[in-house]
Amino acid sequence: MSVIRSAVTGVGSYLPEQIVTNADLAEFVDTSDEWIQERTGIKQRHRARDDEPTSDLAVEAARRALAAAGKSAEDVDLIVVATTTPDMTFPACASIVQRKLGVPVCPAFDVQAVCSGFVYAMSVADGFVARGLSKCALVIGAEEMTRLMDWTDRTTCVLFGDGAGAVVLEPREGQGTSADQGLLGFTLRCDGSKTDLLYVDGGPATTGTVGHLRMLGNQVFRHAVVNIAEAITSCCDAAGVEVSDIDWFVPHQANQRIIKGVGERLGLDENKIILTVETHANTSAASIPLALDVGVKDGRIKKGDLVLLEAMGGGLTWGACAFRF
Ligand code: COA
Question: So where are the chain's domains?
Fold first, then answer.
């Protein structure tokens, strides 16, 4: 049976220039390089300039993804931006990206599922591409999480960073098997009863301010390994593949201990996991496409490889997505 699948034909990413090391943070908050590395695996994070909004990071990542796909801004007919830190409450970051890139009139909107945003956005864009409604979709994860930090709260401010990653999705005809190029399956979940574990204490309809990120880290940690492992097995079922078939795991980069915990629970080969948390920290919806770009650029992820993306974040949301590159 012939089917149309959404294929990832280009990947790109962008990190702001400024690097903030653990030692830099230890100068103004009661923490240490040793504690941060041991508990999270993080050594440094990038931080955007004051005059560099999220849309700027998104646009640069998108330009690089379009170049990798051999496409131009005029070809784009759908923009989905996964972000929890848009430039403004509205318009959507996607609208601003469209203007800055010079993309013609098309659907453009944001998806807000916090750290799971990129997996959610891929599923939304796949709906357009697989139904013939888009021939060249830009799916972007872009965040400036440092804007949400309470710099006096050592339990959160050491964990996050800024950055953006993007992919181009184009339709490819397949036979309806897991050998097809393109997106093969998804699992998306949310448990709204756990909103109080990870949230921002502000917003337009509550405080009228942006607010700061608040997290019960050890409770989030407890849910993470179990939820992510379940999402991966469920996604593999949906895609018609075994976990052992996956060539590359590209996890959301929140914490090396969570990634290792999931790996141990599922018996994954550590050498098949792309890890960037050490240098990027947690960039929320941007972390997966940033890591994907690292794996593609350094030659580990090759055409034809089976790739699995997974994430968990505020909501609590979590999910996974499998595609053949
Ligand atoms: N530097 C030094 N000490 C710190 C610290 C820091 N940056 N942050 C917390 N501590 C202290 C705590 O105050 C606590 O001290 P106490 O025992 O005197 O009260 C101690 O370290 C242990 O705190 P705890 O929160 O139990 O540590 P933990 O081992 O759970 O590690 C996290 C904390 C945040 C690293 C961990 O819970 C985590 O990664 N959770 C998941 C968070 C996550 O990834 N969220 C995003 C999902 S998208």
Answer: 3-174, 182-324
Residue 227 bears catalytic tag: no
CA of 238 to the centre of ligand 1 (A): 35
Ligand 1 pocket residue status of 35, Cβ below 6 Å: yes
pTM attached to this predicted model: 0.97
Class of domain 3-174: alpha beta
d(CA 58, CA 164): 5
Closest Cα to atom 46, ligand 1: which residue?
254
Q: Ligand 1 centroid to 108 CA: how many Å?
A: 37
Per DSSP, what are the bridge partners of residue 81? 110, 140
Cis peptide, bond prior to residue 16, ω within 30 of zero: no
Place of tokens 């629970």: 265
Orientation angle between helical segments 93-101 and 54-69, nearest 10 degrees: 50
Output phi, psi for 8, to 5 deg. -80, 110
Q: Does residue 246's CB lie within 6 angstroms of at least one atom of ligand 1? A: no
Q: pLDDT for 85-138, tens place per residue?
A: 999 999 999 999 999 999 999 999 999 999 999 999 999 999 999 999 999 999
- 22 alpha carbon to ligand 1 midpoint, in Å? 15
Tally the C-alpha atoms within 13 A of residue 148's C-alpha that lie toward its C-beta.
Answer: 27
Active site residue 282: yes
Under CATH, domain 182-324 is a member of which superfamily?
Answer: Thiolase/Chalcone synthase (3.40.47.10)
pLDDT tens-place string over residues 138-148: 999 999 999 99
